[in-house]
Amino acid sequence: MSASLTDELFNQLQGQPLADIGSQLGLSQSQASGAVAAALPLLLGALGRNASQAQGAEALFGALQRDHSGLDIGSVLGSVLGGGGQGSQILGHIFGARQQGAAQGLGAATGLGSDQAGGLLKVLAPIVLAFLAQRMFAQGGNAVAPQLASNDVSPQLLGQVLGQEHSNIAQQGGLGGDLLGAVLDRDGDGDTDFTDLLGLAGSFLGKPR
């Protein structure tokens, strides 16, 4: 793929969508841009981890096909900003018991605080799923994963695509990779390392976005 799923979705949100997200959350466009750039790897990386298990891939595939297929990002964003989209429920499926840690980690890393960061994740979660459904079902397997040379859309393909995205995010590091590793239990003991999360804030706030 010439661009990662994370980069592709971020590019689709440039302009008015980012302005609308920022307005909803009380952020400037530059703040919204930086926060979304940090949040998308977290969401897509967590989905990749979930989809690495067969049951997780099948559950996500079914949800995309049933609830998110045929939706465009603009209409989903409009619904979410109007109070729809079921962002909280989607985040519960994505992060499970780590949902609060994800919001706290994103808030610490971006300087937004956990409330605004949690609000951003709720806005983005339905958009991410609509984007994945569009890529899988509207454009077919070759579009979402041309390197696999297959047009068969299946839970297995979804798991492969998201697993590769997770690996790319983790390997690239940076804010998105560091945040993903911290929230999804970097030390392996089942607890989020909040020291790591708080340490990310300085690197985010100290760099222009």
UniProtKB/TrEMBL annotation:
It holds the Pfam family DUF937. InterPro entries: DUF937. This is DUF937 domain-containing protein. It comes from Lysobacter niastensis.
